[in-house]
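Aim 2, interim progress: modelling of the iron/sulfur cluster-bound target.
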Amino acid sequence: MSEKGKELYEEVQEQVESLKDENSIYSKFVDIWRLACIGKYRSFDLRYLYEDTSREYVEKYKSEMNEAKEEFIDNIDKYVEQCINVMEKTNKFKVYYAKTNEEAKEAFMKELGDTKVIYKSKSLEAKDAGIIDVLKENNIKIKETDLGDVLCQLFEYDHPSFTLAPGVQFTEEEIVAKIKEKHGVEVEPKAEAIVKYYRKTYRPELLNDVKISLTSANAISAHDGSIVLLENEGNISLLTRAVDKHIVVAGISKIVPDEFNAFMVAKLQERITNVDAGYISFISSPSSTSDIQGTRVFGMYGAKEVVVILVDDWRTQAAKENLFYKDMLKCISCKSCDFVCTASRAFGNIYASKYGIGGMNIVRDYIHNGIEEAVKDGLFLCTGCANCTNWCPAGVDLAEMMKQLKKIATKKGLCPPSLKKYQEKILEDKNPFK
Ligand code: SF4
Ligand code: SF4
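Predicted structure of the complex, ligand included:
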């Protein structure tokens, strides 16, 4: 094991040790996270939100969705070109095809212009592409709108958390105490009262003050260029309507052949995670009216402009060169592999990267920042149990990707000392237990 490997190992070990202290930030997260995982897993077989179970629903549609994904991957150039054409010519979107993350960052900053504040809903791709980092470096104020993210900002919580419920670790008492500390307002420690507080104080700002917003896309149709967005709070509806400019940052892997596939992806995301997603938006043009003598004028009540930044970066290369992380292109970002993950349940947000918790985000970190970062994220905490692979509705073999990452790390001398002993025994004695 190299010096670097030792250093990375000690960093991870220190975090794992901190789990013994029940007041540590990691320990607090892991307690609630384990419960959330068990609850989420069990709810999959309950008639929880609808009359069929999520398992029944997912089983019914997953092969159709996977065929659509495979079709895109096998014909990636054709569908990207088709999608850009229809978005520009028919939908009147402004489209950037960013070959690299650098190009995506440049495009975003160009569109931002002099604006110093951006309102956003979750956008994993913006994080992936480094856009969030660039905004921070340029002192652009980032205002989250999903309540969980708003709470994380309130607490200045910068540890990785669960993308679908990022503030789940804060208790009602902690939240109201923080609101009192930061805003000097007394709020009853009840979920209803906290929601009422934000509805009263933050909603008017979202309705009236947002010039530029940032969202991702759950899926994109190559056939008609529709952007599909799924949500439960209504913040995305506001960010895509009550603004001058709506910027969408999405990886090209969000493209599927047509709008019916795109809808299916969104519904499957909803069902597999059992989230109550009350709104699905199909955005196919900026706001417009033709009510005055048939002249089409853009910017009636909704967004005046829709800008789409389609990020390629590693994706076309992975598809064409059959790279070991090609399966990432099939991922629908449902995040449900985290619920069944042994390492995630045991280590919570220690097993994570800056992109979020779980193995997929460790692969992301590897793609963007290299193997040392993946090891630092806790790569070797992965048990290889393959629960993720067996569970995934999109046929993503995450366990295999983790195995490949471990091989790369081991070749670079970055595996933990305990495993190094196994390796030596295997090489010397052909028997790890001798
Ligand atoms: S790998 Fe599979 S289970 Fe995990 S987020 Fe992607 S689609 Fe969902
Ligand atoms: S193989 Fe690794 S990433 Fe997959 S579920 Fe098991 S511990 Fe988690």
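Residues 331-337, 360, 392-394, 396, 398 surround iron/sulfur cluster (ligand 1) (CB under 6 Å). DSSP finds 20 helices and 14 strands in the chain.
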